[in-house]
Amino acid sequence: MTRAAKYGDPADVETNLQGSEGQINYILGDAGHSFVVGFGVDPPQPPHHRSSSCPVPPASCTDGWAQQQPGPNPHTLYGALVGGPSEDDSYVDDRSDYVHNEGACNYNAAYTGALVAIIENI
C-alpha cells in the first residue's frame, strides 16, 4: 500500500492511504490489543527474542533459560512488532509460539512501510 499511496492512480490515493492507516491502527491496538512491544493497549509481554528474554547480568542466559521462565521478558524490546494473530484473529501472548510472538525483520519491514505511507502523506 505504501507504493500505491504514493505512486498509484491518483483516484485511489485516498483509499490506499486509508488502508495503510487501518493496518497501523489495528497493529497499535484498535482491536483491543497492541502487537507492538511496549506500546498501546495490552502489548506483548514475552516476545520470542533471545536477548530481551535473558536475565539481568551477571546471571547467565544458558540452557534455554529464556524459554523456560514465566512472565514478561526482563528487558523490554520497545517498538518491535510481533507476528500477531492467527487467521481467526486470535492471539495468545506466549513466548514459545515464535510464529505469533517473534519480532522478526520481515514483520517489521511491512510495518515500517505502512508507517512511511502515512508519514509521506501527512
From TrEMBL:
This is Endoglucanase. The keyword Hydrolase applies. InterPro entries: 6-hairpin_glycosidase_sf (IPR008928), 6hp_glycosidase-like_sf (IPR012341), Glyco_hydro_9 (IPR001701), Glyco_hydro_9_Asp/Glu_AS (IPR033126). Keywords: Carbohydrate metabolism, Cellulose degradation, Glycosidase, Hydrolase, Polysaccharide degradation. Its EC number is 3.2.1.4. Belongs to the glycosyl hydrolase 9 (cellulase E) family. Residues 42-91 are annotated as: Disordered. It comes from Homarus americanus (American lobster). Residues 14-115 form the Glycoside hydrolase family domain. The active site is at D93, E102. The gene is eglA-L2. It catalyses: Endohydrolysis of (1->4)-beta-D-glucosidic linkages in cellulose, lichenin and cereal beta-D-glucans. GO terms for biological process: cellulose catabolic process. GO terms for molecular function: cellulase activity.
